[in-house]
Amino acid sequence: MKNKRILREQNSIEKMITIYCRDVHRTRKGLCAECEHLLAYAKQKLDHCVFQGNKPVCAKCTIHCYQDTMRKKVIEVMRYAGPRMLYKYPVLAILHIIDSLKSKSKRLNKNIF
Ligand SMILES: [Zn+2]
């Protein structure tokens, strides 16, 4: 069975990529091939995340498991869709902020998404 945090993060990233693809790539339905690939990649990374339930939010994670090109893409998606998540999916966004505050990190909460 999957961890609840992991499931929630997979759900959040899917929504963020969907927002990004629709607005930036002008995809009307579903995702374009590039975003489909990015989502599959992100989900698979979460499935294999070594921290599972104790996972820090990705922005604060000490293990940067994404390969460079994917990392750049996902950061772009989060930058774009992160703030928009607050309006569209406030509950998910707030849970993410709480997760982010709970994870132990010396960094300030500048990189919530
Ligand atoms: Zn796209």
Question: What features would you describe in this structure?
Answer:
This protein is mostly helical and 113 residues long. The chain has one domain. Helix content is 62%, strand content 0%. The protein contains 4 helices and no strands. The protein has helices at residues 4-24, 33-47, 68-88, 90-102. The radius of gyration is 13 Å and the shape is globular. The two termini are 26 Å apart. Bound molecules: zinc ion (ZN).
Features:
single chain, mainly alpha
How would you sum up this structure in a few lines?
This protein has 113 residues and is mostly helical. The protein is 62% helix and 0% strand.
Return Rg in Å: 13 Å
Name every ligand kind in the structure: zinc ion
The tally of helices reads: 4
User: Could you tell me the mean pLDDT?
Assistant: 83
Question: Helix coverage percent of residues?
Answer: 55-70%
Structural class: mainly alpha
Distance between the ends: 26 Å
Biggest β-sheet description: none
What topology does this entry show?
Elements: H1 4-24, H2 33-47, H3 68-88, H4 90-102
Helix pairs in contact: 1-2, 1-3, 3-4
Bound molecules: zinc ion.
